[in-house]
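Quick check before the chapter quiz. The format below is the same one you will see on the exam, so make sure you can read both the input and the output lines.
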Amino acid sequence: MPRPRRLRPQGRAATPELEQHTVEGPASQRLEAFVRGLRPRLSRRLVRRLIAEGAVRVNGAPGRKGTLLRPGDVVALPPTPTLVPEPERAVPVVYVDAELVALDKPGGVRGHALDPRERGTVAAFVLGRWPETAALGDPLAPGFVHRLDTGTSGLLLVARTAAAFAALRAAFRDRRVEKTYLAVVAGSPPPRAHLDTPLAHDPRDRRRMVAAHPGERAWPAVTEVETLAVVGDSALVRARMRTGVMHQIRAHLALLGHPVLGDAVYGGPPAPLAPGRHALHAAELVLPHPAAGRTLRLESPLPADLRALLRRRA
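Here is the expected output.
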């Protein structure tokens, strides 16, 4: 790839300097793919947003979704947007050592930004407190080795070194991490349930996961559910994930007929919780420590908002 050329801003009102790249090769290619090749750490969502905002220019004009580039075209990119550190945010720290950090993410708070210009994420807190994480993984989720949905509270792991990042990612991928959740669900589930329904993206809404049909691209998903208490017309359940599919517990509990309270995406009844919050909590992680050669057990008790929810349901 040719060395980028810089465009110098002219005067006080000039825009930030742009980085120019000349397209090479005999075949045409889409603008989105070209930009992602130049900035591989940027998410597809962010690249699309930058193109939609006109921040990416092709031969001096704003690029558009679906623009096909040809040899000789010049693509100008703005500086890579960066996450603003927010060390002052109130995010409880459950455990910290030289290799990793475990946080207790509040429900209703984004774990990571979809755009670096967003504020108020756990990722911004992490970057402010442990700046070494900036070099690890997704720049919008620095050091994150797994994710929690915005509405879910509880344990979130962040690596502080490259070795720990690789080791923890491998542990999650190889299913060597035991993940236990607590949820307040609608109705009275059976005392125990074993759910092994493969999940697929809902073709009508890819933000949801549904039971897979034959021939669809699907992910194996296994969840063990235990009912701990029935409270009025709801129940507190413990769910253990044997796999790690997007929205796995939420989707499986909905398929069981007992969706999580406040989870409108999966048919959960409304609940008096903070905006964006649903009644799901990541309560325990058991994993191999990436450096110390021992088993690390991390726990987070049911948070106050979900305890209050259960009292109101009694």
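If your answer matched, good. The radius of gyration is 22 Å.
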